[in-house]
Specification:
alpha/beta; 6-stranded mixed beta sheet; 5-stranded mixed beta sheet; 11 strands; globular
Length: 324
């Protein structure tokens, strides 16, 4: 009896040892960040599909990979999470990615794919006579977060128009403000303008009577960024994720009505933000959803970041974009 028990334990341990690699693989967790914005549509659609039991990424990454989603208001926070090694990949704007790349001398982040171009704009009050940068002297302009893509764009636009803009003040006041707060402050006339992304551009128009003064139709709005360490140590997994991201981007382009519905459902389910179909359709019309990104497209962001003091010198962008 005792001998039989020993044989059973030996067989059990042998089986567990044989299964150890599978168990180790089962522990793989992929941490992915995004914002609650329509311009992060791939993440919104993927999460909505997961809620319906149709894991787009899970089906392509395999049963041994679990995705954990993390939400940020704007890019600088997501980049800090990359630095803290609490994120592997994130959808983010180009300026925070560029700043993080320059800050780490190219050692910490890589852009592995594009996601969305366009979908960002400067919105002014409906009865405003503001028309050019010089008109904004003494005015208050909100942006999503200090140092994010729209924050840099707003400051660079004002500086290019002859205003003196510092990080804390100057001829006009650039006020980093979360997107939901932007809407209420703008509606109450406590802001003269907002530089932000969809769906907030369309919400400012439809819910607060705003009008678009400057629209960034072709500028990069969202890219997919990887931790350089994650990319180096998990290249095959990163490659599969990027391939799935590209497939999802193509599916979204081919199925815009369904994709819009899923994005609306995710915003409602996770963030308690209800949006009518016509508002999301309006936001959609401003976006170019694409998985492609080029190094040349980042050059304008370098110039803008330098103009407003977020970058000193010219970083070598040679390692910034890397396809796994």
């Amino acid at each position: 009896m005792r001998q039989g028990w020993r044989l059973f334990l030996f067989a059990a341990f042998a089986w567990l040892a044989a299964q150890a690699p599978a168990f180790a693989q089962g522990a793989t967790t992929l941490r992915v960040g995004h914002f609650p914005n329509i311009t992060h549509v791939q993440a919104l659609v993927a999460r909505a599909m997961e809620r319906q039991g149709k894991g787009w990424f899970a089906e392509r990454l395999g049963p041994n990979v679990k995705i954990e989603w993390y939400v940020y208001n704007a890019g600088p926070s997501a980049m800090e999470a990359i630095f803290a090694k609490s994120l592997d990949l994130t959808y983010v704007g180009p300026n925070p990615a560029l700043n993080a790349y320059a800050r780490s001398r190219g050692d910490e982040v890589r852009v592995v794919a594009g996601a969305v171009n366009g979908g960002s704009a400067l919105v002014v009050q409906g009865d405003s006579t503001l028309a050019k940068p010089a008109d904004f002297k003494g005015k208050r302009i909100a942006t999503p977060q200090f140092g994010n893509t729209q924050d840099v764009a707003a400051r660079a636009w004002l500086v290019a128009g002859g205003l003196r803009i510092t990080q804390t003040g100057g001829d006009a006041q650039v006020v980093p403000t979360s997107n939901p707060d932007q809407l209420s402050l703008f509606r109450n006339k406590q802001l003269d303008a907002v530089w932000t992304v969809e769906p907030w551009v369309s919400r400012l128009e439809s819910e607060a009577g705003g009008k678009v003064l400057v629209e960034e139709k072709d500028a990069i709005t969202t890219v997919l960024v990887s931790s350089a360490e994650f990319l180096s140590k998990n290249r095959d997994l990163a490659k599969r994720f990027v391939a799935a991201h590209r497939e999802l981007t193509e599916w979204i382009k081919q199925n815009p009505d369904e994709a819009q519905r899923l994005a609306r459902e995710e915003l409602e389910a996770t963030f308690k933000v209800g949006m009518p179909p016509e508002l999301v359709a309006r936001a959609w019309s401003r976006m170019n959803i694409t998985p492609d990104v080029t190094l040349q497209a980042f050059q304008s962001f370098v110039t803008s970041a330098q103009a407003v003091g977020f970058l000193r010198g010219t970083p070598d962008l040679g390692r910034m974009i890397e396809a796994p």
